[in-house]
Design goal:
The protein is mainly alpha-helical and 165 residues long. Helices cover 68% and strands 0% of the residues. It is flat.
Length: 165
C-alpha cells in the first residue's frame, strides 16, 4: 500500500544538512567580562557586609535591589534615550548587572535562615526581595524617563543665540 502522507507532511529539505549558525564570539566575550566584573562587585559587598545565618541578608537584598534599579535605568537609557552600541546591552545588562544580582544566593540565604531556626526572617526575606526588585525596576524605568523628559524640556526652553550650537 502506498504511503498516505500528504504533501504538507513531506519534508522537502530532509537531505540538506542543518544550517550552521555563526557563534557570536564578541557578544559572549563581553557578557563573560561583564559577568566577572559584576560577580566580583557582588562578592565585595557580601564580604563587606556579612550576615549571621539566621539574620536578614541585607547585602544580598541590597545588591539585588540596586541591580534591578540599574537594569531599569539601563534599559530606558539604551532603548528610549540614546541608541547604544550593540554590545552595551549584553555587557552591562546581561554581564555586569546579571553577575551583580544574585537570585540564587537569595534562595540560599532564605534556606540558611530556615535551617538556623528563623522561619519568620526567611519568609520576610523571600517575600521582600522579589517585591523590592520589581519595585526597583519600575522606579528605575520611571525615574529615568522623567529625567529624560526634564532634560529635553530644559533644552527646548533654553534661549538660542545665533552662531552658537
Amino acid at each position: 500500500m502506498p504511503d498516505a502522507r500528504t504533501a504538507a507532511q513531506v519534508d522537502l529539505h530532509a537531505d540538506r544538512p542543518p544550517a550552521r549558525r555563526r557563534v557570536p564570539w564578541a557578544t559572549l566575550a563581553v557578557i563573560s567580562t561583564g559577568g566577572m566584573a559584576g560577580a566580583l562587585a557582588r562578592h565585595g559587598v557580601a564580604v563587606a557586609f556579612p550576615h549571621a545565618p539566621g539574620g536578614f541578608a541585607w547585602a544580598t537584598f541590597g545588591v539585588n535591589t540596586a541591580g534591578c534599579l540599574l537594569i531599569g535605568v539601563l534599559m530606558v537609557a539604551i532603548t528610549e534615550i540614546r541608541e547604544a552600541h550593540r554590545l552595551v546591552r549584553p555587557f552591562l545588562g546581561v554581564g555586569v548587572l546579571g553577575g551583580f544580582t544574585t537570585f540564587s544566593t537569595y534562595v540560599v540565604d532564605a534556606q540558611q535562615a530556615l535551617q538556623a531556626g528563623a522561619p519568620r526572617t526567611a519568609l520576610i526575606y523571600l517575600a521582600a526581595t522579589p517585591t523590592a526588585a520589581l519595585a526597583a525596576v519600575f522606579t528605575g524605568v520611571h525615574l529615568t524617563r522623567a529625567l529624560a523628559r526634564a532634560v529635553a524640556r530644559r533644552r527646548e526652553d533654553r534661549p538660542r543665540t545665533e552662531g552658537r550650537p
